[in-house]
Amino acid sequence: MNNIPQVRLGLIAVSRNCFPAALSIRRREALVAISKNLYECKITVENEIEARQAVADVKAAGCNALAVLLGNFGPETPETLIARFFDGPVMYAASAEGDGDLFDGRGDAFCGMLNCSYNLGIRSLKAYVPAYPVGTAEEIARMIEDFVPVARAILGLSGLKIITFGPRPDDFLACNAPIKPLFDLGVEIEENSELDLLAVFNKHKDDPRIPQVVEDMKKETGAERNRYAGVLPQLAQYELTLLDWMQEHKGAREYVAFANKCWPAFQTEFGFMPCYVNSRLTGQGVPISCEVDIYGALSEYIGVCVSGKEVTLLDINNTVPASIYDRSIKGKYDVRHNETFMGFHCGNTACKLLKDPHMGYQLIMKRGLEPDLPEPDITRGTMEGDIKPGDITFYRLQGAADTGVKAYIAQGEVLDVPTESFGGIGIIAIHEMDRFYRYALIAKRFPHHGAVAFGKHGRALFDVMQYLGVRDISFNQPKGMLYQDENPFA
After folding, report:
1. pTM above 0.85, yes or no
2. 365-421: per-residue pLDDT in tens?
3. Distance CA 321, CA 297 (A)
4. How far apart, in whole angstroms, are the C-alpha atoms of residue 4 and residue 160?
5. 36 pLDDT band (50/70/90 cuts)?
6. Domains present along the chain, CATH in parentheses
7. What is the C-alpha to C-alpha distance for residues 382 and 263, in angstroms, rounded to an integer?
8. Backbone φ/ψ region at 148: left (φ over 0), alpha (ψ -120 to 50), beta
């Protein structure tokens, strides 16, 4: 499903008129020869008119993201006005010396990058600047590769609508946050009632597409070993309901994520758990967060754009018993006991991310909704299994009470250790997790839901948050680096 943008990157070189324009052109051509899928604007910008012309050229070529190359010192005003004229993410980089003599061939872009940054600041213009933004053609080509996932996330958010079906469950303030920051980020939101969803779900009862979806679900869940396959027609009906709503309600936006009510009235009125459908659509690039967690859906969508792969949303749920740690982790992994925890949700994680995916029922819900039934009925529909081991990035972008935003990012791994529990669940290790838990997650009032991208994506996620203007970004600080409120005598 095409629910994230395709980045079409353009390149504009700039030149200060007292430096040889040929130097910028030569360096631009060297970069284009290395960097693939990069549209080369042939207008070398030296003044404001050329800045407008160059932007018009890359727009006409279909570019939605832009790299600006200081092939020499660069014209401070025109080069930064490019970011104003261009409606999309922009990065700046400067050419290092070494491709010619240091008389006529010296560009001084190392110096010019400072003034470029200063001028971007006084014009309040956003731009992506690499960690060390000066390099050879080969080095700048790698900077551009790093920029692509950041640009994809920025473009995605500018075209995103988050559709919600609520209200949130009672006594569940944890996922409640102001929606104004969403608009500040360029995201649209459509809030609906659970009754709206039920009404349109009922209209899909005899949808002729249901059998085809059921067959696809059977292939994915292994119908021959699926004890709860009888619920698949209802789940297929629900999936089609959401997909149709997505197409009919995206309006002027291009991309969609959902934040949906999933308990407790959902089970009594719909007759199943929605988790498996949530997992299927999230696996197709349309995140569906649990419990009307709007910022969870937002975080998941950012992760899809950055990683280009499936993500999930997990509770920072429970500690790892000492017996499991001593038996399966200690001495095998370089992590302390308090650096581990279990990430869990009822069953919203895509099958391909689980070691032994199988359909189940929500044990916690069954206790309250159908305690006397020997077999589950309305609590069927979860997708369960231990999460596959490997590198992860645990992160969240969160609205704050003052209508600002804050975020955290921590890289870690899912350990190849049986959880001995239920749901979609994994044992996660993050270095210095105990301190991160106390002085970032608790101290800064983050809720229990965290988004999980599979792989090491911390750098790109951090760059996205900075581009969005998030100033409060927490991370799992190494030992010896104190958090703001951490007791130095602990």
Report:
1. yes
2. 889 888 989 999 999 999 999 999 999 999 999 998 888 899 999 999 999 999 999
3. 30
4. 9
5. confident
6. 10-157 (3.40.50.10940), 167-475 (3.20.14)
7. 13
8. alpha
